[in-house]
Structures are given as structure tokens and as C-alpha cells.
Design goal:
- By secondary structure, this protein is mainly α.
- The protein is built from eight helices and no strands.
- α3 packs antiparallel against α8.
- The chain starts with a helix and ends with a helix.
């Protein structure tokens, strides 16, 4: 497969894996590292990060647009305890000094899960551009850290 096709496939796998957890982008990065050059492996890592970021922005936007409905449901069924928890978490994600490091840790390390962080960030007042940029940086670092050593070892 040529480099353009490899990049397009990596973006597709990234988007699908961001929305459907059964598809594993990390495994794809390792498989790509085993069958491509080191330079192309880096390109695949970036393309996977682009796809993952797009997918997580879909979750972010879904949570942002559905916040009113979720708020109404929590108010009816959860009472004060759920509302206090929601307020604390959204408060953390709204502040730059706690929200952005949480997104970066999640995107890079996987803890807390990025899907959950994406939805909480969308439900809070976190800025879309900041979330997307930090998510992309973290995912690029994660995929490069996984794939590049494998590509170097196999060349």
C-alpha cells in the first residue's frame, strides 16, 4: 500500500476506534510499524491521532449538545448527590489548570478513559479548540511512543 493509502486507512481506523472501543488503534499502530518504514510509521501515528481526535470531538459535541437533557434527567432521578458530583467534575474540566492536564493525561496514558473525558469536557465549558489540540498532541505522543520503537527494532 502506498503512503497516501496508509495515511487514509490510519485516519479511518482512528475515527472508528474513537467511537467503537472494540477497534484498537494501538494495535493498528504496531501492525503498521511492522510493515512500513520508520518515516511512514511516524506518519501513521500522526494520521491515527488525527482520526482519534476527530472521533473524540464527535463525542465532545454530542455531550455539549445533549447537556440540557442530561441535566434534566439527573435533576429528576439523581437528586443533589449526582448534581454535586456533576458540578465538581465539570468545574475541574472548565479550569485550564486542571482540565487541560486531565485531557493530556487521558490522551497520552489512557487514564482516565479518553471517551469519558471527552464527554465530560463537552458537557463542561471547556473550549473545543483547546480540547482538540491537547487531544491531538497526547494521541500523537501515545501512538509514536508505541509504534516507533517497534519500527526501529524491525528495521
Amino acid at each position: 500500500m502506498n503512503s497516501l493509502g496508509e495515511g487514509a486507512l490510519a485516519i479511518f481506523v482512528g475515527v472508528v476506534s474513537a467511537l467503537f472501543p472494540l477497534v484498537n488503534a494501538e494495535a493498528y499502530a504496531l501492525v503498521a510499524a511492522a510493515r512500513t518504514s520508520v518515516a511512514l510509521t511516524l506518519g501513521v501515528a500522526v494520521a491515527l491521532a488525527v482520526g482519534q481526535t476527530v472521533g473524540k470531538l464527535v463525542l465532545f459535541e454530542a455531550a455539549r449538545r445533549g447537556t440540557g437533557r442530561l441535566h434534566a434527567r439527573f435533576s429528576r432521578h439523581g437528586g443533589g448527590r449526582v448534581e454535586r458530583w456533576r458540578g465538581r467534575v465539570c468545574g475541574l474540566m472548565t479550569r485550564r489548570r486542571t482540565g487541560l492536564p486531565t485531557v493530556l493525561a487521558s490522551a497520552t496514558l489512557g487514564l482516565p478513559p479518553l471517551a469519558v473525558v471527552s464527554m465530560v469536557a463537552g458537557a463542561s465549558a471547556q473550549k473545543r479548540f483547546e480540547f482538540g489540540a491537547i487531544c491531538f498532541i497526547g494521541r500523537t505522543a501515545r501512538f509514536a511512543a508505541l509504534a516507533l520503537p517497534a519500527a526501529l527494532a524491525l528495521t
